[in-house]
Design a protein that fits this description.
Strand content: 15-25%
Distance between the termini: 77 Å
Number of helices: 9
Shape: rod-shaped
CATH architecture of the domain at 486-579: Orthogonal Bundle
Structural class: alpha/beta
CATH class of the domain at 486-579: Mainly Alpha
Strand order of the largest sheet: 11-15-18-21-24-26-28-31-35-38-41-44-47
C-alpha cells in the first residue's frame, strides 16, 4: 500500500471518511508522499483515528478496528492515567486491527500489558513512521500476531514476555534500525513466520523464548550488523528453517538452545564474520543441516552439543577463515562431505557412531586425537579426502583400523586408499609406528582389491591371479609385514631355516640323497649335518666342507635363494626402522 518515499506530509480536514466496510470517520487524513528521487508526489486518503476515538473504543470495550487509518497517538498510557491504573495492570481489548494504516506516533507506541481477548492483533501492510514500539508482557489468548508486509520504525522494538497462542506472522516485514527484543516471549501452537524479513541493523534477541509446536521459518530473512541471539530458547516439535538466511557480521548465538524433534535447516544460509555458536545446544531427535552454507571469518562452535539422536550435515559447506570445534559434542552422525576445511578443525567428539569426511579438502589441522576423554567414534569415511594439512589421530586410541574397516558402503579399493592417505599423514606427523600399520593395511586391501577386480573382469584370471595373491600374502605380508617389522623377518628366517633343516634330514632318510664331508669321515649326526649344511647354504657362506649329493642338489638352490631374499628383506626392514 505504501510505496517508498523520502518525505511525507499530513493534512487533517473535517471531511468525513467512509471506509470500504461502511465505518465512517468524522475526519479525513490526506497524506502526501514524495518519491525518493523527488520527482513524484502521491496522495492517499485515510480515516483519522484520533486519540479520543481510540480511547472511546477502549472504554466501551469494543473492538479497535483501525484499518486504513492515520494514527498519531497509539498508546495505553493515556487510558491508564485516566483510570488511575498501575503501569503493570492489564487492559483488556476485545480485538485490534490496524491493517493498511499509517502510524505516526508522537510518543512511544505503548501496547504493553494489554490483554487481547479475541482475534489477531493485526498490523498487516501498516507503516510505522517513527518512535519505538512495545508489546512488553502483552497477551494474545485467542488469536495471533500479524505484521505481514509492515514497515516498522527506527528505534528499539520491545516484544519481551509477550504471550501469543496463535500464528505469529512477520513475513516480508522491514524492521528499522535498533534492537528487536523477543526475550522471554512465549509462542503457542501456531507457526512463527519471519520469511523474507529484513531485520536491518541492531541486535535481535530471542533469548529464553519459548516456541510452541508450530513450524518456525526465517527463510530468506536478512539480519544486519547486530547480534542474533537465541541463547536458552526452547523449540517445540515443528521444523525450524533458516534456509538462505543472511546473517550479518554480528555474533550468531544458539548456545544451549533446546531444539525439538523437527528438522533444523540452515541450508544455503550465509553467515557473516562474527562467531557462530551452538555450544551445549540440544536436539531431541531429527536432523540439523548446513548444506551449502557459507561461513565467514568467525569461529564456529558446537562444543558440548547434545545431538545423540540427531544427524548433523555440513555437506558442501564453505568454511572460510574461522576455526571449527566439535569438542566433546555428541552426534548420531556428523557429515562434512565435500567441505573445505581451511583452518583448525576440532573433531574430538565425545560420541559419534558415524563421521563422514569423504571428498573433504583439509588445508589445516584436523584434530581427532584423544586428550581429556575417550573419543567414541565407530566409523569414519576418509574416502576421496584431499589432505593438504594434517590429521592428528592415534592408531590405537582412535581404533583407526576399525574406523575404516567398519564402513559398509565402500569397496576394498576405497578403504585401501584411505589407509594410504593416513599412512602419508602419519609420516608427516612423525608417527612412524602408526605409519607402518596403515601401510600394511593399505597393501593388504590393495591386494584383495586387485584380486576382486581381476575376477570380476575375467573369471579365468583366477588361474594365475590366486597363486600370485597367495605368493604375495606369504612372502610380503606373513614374512615381514611389507618390510615394516625386522623382528618379524628375523622370526621368518629362523622358521625357514629350521624347516629347511628338517626337510634336508627327511630327504636323506627317504631318498638317495646325502651330505658328503670333503674332509673325510664326519663326526656329526644326521640332524647335526642337516642343520649345519642348511645354515651355511641359507646364509650363503658356502665353506665347502660339506656338499650335497642326489636330490639335495636342487633343494640347495631353493635354500640359498630363500636365505638371500630373507637376509635382504631383513636389511631393508632394519635400515628403514633405524633411519626414521
Amino acid at each position: 500500500m505504501f510505496h517508498e518515499f523520502s518525505t511525507f506530509s499530513v493534512e487533517i480536514n473535517d471531511d468525513k471518511y467512509t471506509r470500504d466496510d461502511g465505518v465512517v470517520f468524522s475526519q479525513t487524513a490526506v497524506l502526501k508522499f514524495i518519491s525518493p528521487d523527488g520527482h513524484y508526489e502521491t496522495k492517499l486518503s485515510a480515516g483519522y483515528a484520533s486519540e479520543d476515538y481510540i480511547m472511546s473504543l477502549i472504554r466501551e470495550g469494543r473492538e479497535l478496528n483501525l484499518d486504513r487509518c492515520y494514527i498519531d497517538h497509539l498508546s495505553l498510557e493515556s487510558f491508564r492515567q485516566e483510570k488511575d491504573l498501575d503501569r503493570k495492570t492489564y487492559v483488556e481489548i476485545a480485538g485490534f486491527s490496524a491493517k493498511d494504516s499509517f502510524i505516526n506516533n508522537k510518543y512511544l507506541i505503548d501496547l504493553s500489558y494489554a490483554h487481547f481477548t479475541s482475534g489477531t492483533l493485526n498490523f498487516e501492510n501498516s507503516y510505522f513512521a517513527k518512535n519505538a514500539l512495545t508489546l512488553h508482557a502483552s497477551k494474545i489468548t485467542n488469536g495471533g500476531l500479524d505484521f505481514h508486509n509492515a514497515h516498522l520504525p527506527d528505534g528499539d522494538l520491545n516484544f519481551t514476555n509477550l504471550v501469543v497462542e496463535g500464528t505469529v506472522d512477520f513475513k516480508n516485514v522491514k524492521f528499522g534500525r535498533g534492537s528487536k527484543d523477543f526475550q522471554d516471549a512465549s509462542f503457542g501452537e501456531g507457526d512463527i513466520l519471519f520469511v523474507n524479513a529484513d531485520f536491518n541493523d541492531g541486535d535481535v534477541s530471542f533469548v529464553n523464548t519459548q516456541f510452541g509446536s508450530g513450524n518456525i521459518s526465517f527463510k530468506v530473512a536478512r539480519f544486519g550488523t547486530g547480534r542474533v541471539d537465541f541463547h536458552f530458547a526452547k523449540v517445540g516439535e515443528g521444523d525450524i528453517s533458516f534456509e538462505r538466511t543472511e546473517f550479518g557480521n554480528g555474533r550468531v548465538d544458539f548456545r544451549t538452545v533446546e531444539f525439538g524433534t523437527g528438522r533444523v535447516n540452515f541450508n544455503r544460509a550465509i553467515f557473516g564474520n562474527g562467531d557462530v555458536s551452538f555450544e551445549a545446544s540440544q536436539i531431541k531427535e531429527g536432523k540439523i543441516s548446513f548444506t551449502k552454507a557459507e561461513f565467514g571469518e568467525g569461529n564456529l562452535s558446537f562444543e558440548l552439543a547434545e545431538f545423540d539422536h540427531a544427524d548433523a550435515s555440513f555437506d558442501r559447506a564453505d568454511f572460510n577463515g574461522g576455526n571449527i570445534s566439535f569438542h566433546n559434542a555428541r552426534f548420531r552422525s556428523l557429515g562434512l562431505t565435500s567441505c573445505h576445511l581451511n583452518h583448525y578443525t576440532d573433531l574430538r567428539v565425545a560420541v559419534c557412531p558415524f563421521m563422514d569426511l569423504s571428498d573433504t579438502v583439509a588445508r589445516d589441522i584436523i584434530d581427532l586425537k584423544p586428550y581429556e576423554f575417550d573419543i567414541r567414534v565407530d566409523t569414519i569415511n576418509f574416502s576421496g579426502m584431499r589432505l593438504l594439512g594434517r590429521i592428528f589421530i592415534d592408531w590405537e586410541k582412535n581404533h583407526v583400523k576399525k574406523l575404516i574397516m567398519s564402513q559398509r558402503d565402500t569397496s576394498k579399493r576405497i578403504k585401501a586408499e584411505q589407509f594410504r592417505t593416513l599412512k602419508q599423514n602419519f609420516n608427516v606427523t612423525g608417527q612412524y609406528s602408526d605409519e607402518d600399520k596403515a601401510y600394511v593395511e593399505f597393501k593388504r586391501l590393495e591386494s584383495k582389491a586387485i584380486l576382486e577386480e581381476a575376477y570380476q573382469k575375467q573369471r579365468l584370471s583366477v588361474i594365475w591371479i590366486y597363486p600370485l595373491y597367495i605368493f604375495k600374502l606369504v612372502v610380503f605380508d606373513l614374512a615381514g609385514l611389507y618390510a615394516t617389522n625386522p623382528v618379524r623377518v628375523m622370526i621368518s628366517m629362523l622358521v625357514s631355516y629350521s624347516t629347511f633343516s628338517l626337510i634336508a634330514a627327511l630327504l636323506i632318510l627317504t631318498t638317495d640323497s646325502t651330505i658328503i664331508s670333503s674332509m673325510g669321515e664326519s663326526s656329526l649326526s644326521l640332524i647335526g649335518k642337516s642343520f649345519y649344511y642348511t645354515a651355511i647354504t641359507f646364509l650363503t657362506i658356502g665353506y665347502g666342507d660339506y656338499y650335497p649329493s642326489g636330490s639335495l642338489h636342487w633343494f640347495a638352490g631353493i635354500v640359498g635363494w630363500v636365505g638371500l631374499f630373507l637376509m635382504s628383506y631383513f636389511t631393508v626392514a632394519f635400515v628403514r626402522k633405524v633411519l626414521r
